[in-house]
């Protein structure tokens, strides 16, 4: 099955405190060249923490 245009732009977000992968999001690599850093809720830490883009 061929790769779709939505699956090639998927990235993983990893919690900066507990280092667990919690989220997958789409990223437009043409407009955003830097790594994503978002403040999201971590169910393992049970609080809002900084989530950074990680390698697959």
TrEMBL record:
UniProt keyword GTP-binding, yes or no: no
Origin: domain of life: Bacteria
Iron-sulfur among keywords: no
Listed Gene3D superfamilies: Ribosomal protein L33 (2.20.28.120)
Record's GO cellular component terms: cytoplasm; ribonucleoprotein complex; ribosome
Entries under Pfam families matching the protein: Ribosomal_L33 (PF00471)
GO BP: translation
One annotated GO molecular function: structural constituent of ribosome
Listed HAMAP family: Ribosomal_bL33 (MF_00294)
Database matches in PANTHER family: 50S RIBOSOMAL PROTEIN L33, CHLOROPLASTIC, LARGE RIBOSOMAL SUBUNIT PROTEIN BL33C
Protein name (Swiss-Prot/TrEMBL): Large ribosomal subunit protein bL33
């Amino acid at each position: 099955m061929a790769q779709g245009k939505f699956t090639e732009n998927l990235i993983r977000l990893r919690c900066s405190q507990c280092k667990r992968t919690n989220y997958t999001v789409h990223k437009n690599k043409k407009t955003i060249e830097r790594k994503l850093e978002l403040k999201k809720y971590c169910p393992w830490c049970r609080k809002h923490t900084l989530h950074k883009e990680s390698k697959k």
